[in-house]
Amino acid sequence: MNSLVVVTHPTMESSVINKRWVEELQKYPEKYTVHELHKVYPDGNIDVEKEQRLIEAHGNLILQFPVFWFNCPPLLKKWLDDVFAYGWAYGSNGGDHLKHRKAALAVSAGIKKEDYSEQGKYRYTLKELLSPFETTFLYCKADYRSFFAFYGTENEQPASEIEQSAQDYLNFIDNL
Questions:
Q1: Residue 30 has pLDDT above 90, yes or no
Q2: Is the pTM of this model over 0.90?
Q3: 94: phi > 0 → left, psi -120 to 50 → alpha, else beta; which?
């Protein structure tokens, strides 16, 4: 069953990392379904039932996004709030559609990895900053598998590192 990759990037056309990751994923439609929220919902009005059916039709669920203000872009937060509804993602009366589903994150972070540490500029690791996502998946009884990250996107990266990250990303998803 294909992995569903929900991509949320408000300026994908100017992205380097997320755009490259999407290009690589799209080479293998038999393995990955790329679902770009900003393309599907430019007005921000999410079709909840359609999104829930899309998740149900796939195996793994990966949320891909750039870290914005130490969180996700607003459209992804809205998507989570709307789609992970009581009675579907958690709670009684069928609230188990994420149960045992492998889930993970793929994020690009503008700052360097060493800045995401207790001794670093921001005093928290990326794992700590992403813990609300882990907690959300755990609350919904999904099988959270951590995250894949590319650091330092605010600085120009060598093409070889970008290409390697695309290959590593696919390997990450394939080994969830």
A1: yes
A2: yes
A3: left
